[in-house]
Amino acid sequence: MSQYWSKLVHNLDPYVPGEQPKDQRYIKLNTNECPYPPSPNALAAIHAAADERLRLYPDPNADELKDAIADYYNVQRANIFVGNGSDEVLAHVFQGLLKHDAPLLYPDISYSFYPVYANLYQINAQQIPLREDFRVCLGDYAVDNGGIIFPNPNAPTSMALGLDAIEALLQTHAESVVVVDEAYVDFGAQTAIPLIDKYPNLLVVQTFSKSRSLAGLRVGFAVGHPDLITALERVKNSFNSYPLGRMAIAGAAAAMRDKAYFEDTCQKIIATREMTVQSLTEMGFSVLPSAANFVFARPPAGNAESLYLALKQRGVLVRYFNKPRINEYLRITIGTDEEMAAFLSVLAEL
Amino acid sequence: MSQYWSKLVHNLDPYVPGEQPKDQRYIKLNTNECPYPPSPNALAAIHAAADERLRLYPDPNADELKDAIADYYNVQRANIFVGNGSDEVLAHVFQGLLKHDAPLLYPDISYSFYPVYANLYQINAQQIPLREDFRVCLGDYAVDNGGIIFPNPNAPTSMALGLDAIEALLQTHAESVVVVDEAYVDFGAQTAIPLIDKYPNLLVVQTFSKSRSLAGLRVGFAVGHPDLITALERVKNSFNSYPLGRMAIAGAAAAMRDKAYFEDTCQKIIATREMTVQSLTEMGFSVLPSAANFVFARPPAGNAESLYLALKQRGVLVRYFNKPRINEYLRITIGTDEEMAAFLSVLAEL
């Protein structure tokens, strides 16, 4: 608290990321990172870019990266916006596309950064409750609004909507922007990117931090109609001309081009997830149907918090949210087969 | 223009960075980059960080980097804020510390991103004219205000204020934040960082893009009282938990620790600048007294724009601002001795 702060700062309620402890080595199943290394091509591109040219500014438009993403999704460069992690992309989306007189809508149980952005940009927002079974029901969003954003799959519930449900929403909702936050889409859901040509108010946001194993590089992107992208570029160019460094551009572009490695990584995680779900179910956990690289599971006794603490004490980090409706659940990131076997064996002991 | 844009977006007037042409090789004296490569220690640290750990998020607090900066300037970690280039740091400063009812003050001829930020965050701002001789006169800022920001040395004029003038301002001005933007301070001006213990409203902003040859890595920082830093952390943690990737943290920390390399680089640039100023003066240019890694020079005939174009045609890029009062000047970055000799020889031909 200080007389020097802008008024806004006093009322901020910042996001709290998952723990990144430095005191000891944990089996880290708490921040939805990928257990597999990045594509060797991405690492090679990063090393190749890490030379004396770092004295020079990067390409402010990151065209190499935009082109790699556009090629992958068979869209145009003008459909792509890139940023310093999907969190930065989402921040610009909130400021540039989701601030209107009518309320912005998002699920009450969802990515907990949404209310933080709404507060930062003083956006009128309204939370739409998930159904009793934790489903996002897009029919519930048919109210006057200045924008809609939801993750697909949702977090921390891990449950996905089908493209048919998303297209049904778009068909009846042309008046404001619909943002589909696809951070986890590659682990079992369908991307809405093919719909952007048909719906100029659809924006899809993705990240390199999960399925492309590059959380430490900080790259995210958005795909949509060029009018939406132009708004984001205008905000970005009023904030930071060069959000992506030379290595971020080169590394992310190479990762995007290595389709085979990416698909292999996703398949391994999906296989490990199915094994984990089966084991947890056999141990009496209720596990929500997951299309993500994590599962959301209720222990048989509902004692999620004490179980979180006991796991931590035994060197396994998972994520616990002390919030209404979800405080009997744990969010467990899918690691390697070995990590999950170790986790399950600690769990069995407990 | 689109119905989907937030109202704000329609009125943005984004910053335009210096050209980064890809069509041919230029002698690039237009974006104030350092002509020398980064410290070998920085490159080594970047390569060491570019491995499979990139799958993991970086330290959201970038403590390694904060500690390296704190050590260098003999302050505490709590005095340091770091961000994705000093442009991002400045953006958070504008939003978190400089938005008040009374107007924010900055020089009329200065870093042209300031009015862009003021517009982005809808900050009431007032430009204070430079004196006839292009000096910033801090006495002119003794009016009711909600904050003051100025670069030292100023850009694009290259002229520096002494610490005595800055301390005189601080002594009579405790009621709002004073930001000294020291992007170019290492080339001949004095940093105000030693004053932060005495003046809790002083914030100093610096960058790794100029004197530390890391424009392509994207790292900047601010130094000030912990209360000011807390405001910036609150904004940052409402915007992006992880603005700096693993390589940015490791590379910038190593660069900061390599004091000898840094000092050698600065000395070489200063020597080349003095040689350049002498040659330009002999050719009839009026050159403002520079404490930066660039000079601001008026050609004898005042034909700056046509000279800019002619230089570009001959493969030399400098920066021309088509703005009142400075449209007869060129901003010329100091390159290597060889680059400046080539520039001067093209100039002599013209």
From TrEMBL, chains A, B:
Q: Pathway involvement?
A: Amino-acid biosynthesis; L-histidine biosynthesis; L-histidine from 5-phospho-alpha-D-ribose 1-diphosphate: step 7/9
Biological processes per GO annotation: L-histidine biosynthetic process
The superkingdom listed in its UniProt entry is Bacteria
Q: Tell me if Amino-acid biosynthesis is a UniProt keyword of this record.
A: yes
HAMAP family, per the entry? HisC_aminotrans_2 (MF_01023)
Keywords from the UniProt entry: Amino-acid biosynthesis, Aminotransferase, Histidine biosynthesis, Pyridoxal phosphate, Transferase
* Catalytic activity from the UniProt record: L-histidinol phosphate + 2-oxoglutarate = 3-(imidazol-4-yl)-2-oxopropyl phosphate + L-glutamate
UniProt domain Aminotransferase class I/classII large: residue ranges:
26-346
Give its E.C. classification number.
2.6.1.9
What is annotated about its quaternary structure and interactions? Answer: Homodimer.
Extract the InterPro entries matched here.
Answer: Aminotrans_II_pyridoxalP_BS, Aminotransferase_I/II_large, HisP_aminotrans, HistidinolP_aminotransfase, PyrdxlP-dep_Trfase, PyrdxlP-dep_Trfase_major, PyrdxlP-dep_Trfase_small
Q: Kindly list the GO molecular function terms attached to this UniProt entry.
A: histidinol-phosphate transaminase activity; pyridoxal phosphate binding
The family note in this entry says: Belongs to the class-II pyridoxal-phosphate-dependent aminotransferase family. Histidinol-phosphate aminotransferase subfamily.
Give the cofactors, semicolon-separated: pyridoxal 5'-phosphate
* Name the record gives this protein: Histidinol-phosphate aminotransferase
Note the Gene3D superfamilies from the entry: Aspartate Aminotransferase, domain 1 (3.90.1150.10), Type I PLP-dependent aspartate aminotransferase-like (Major domain) (3.40.640.10)
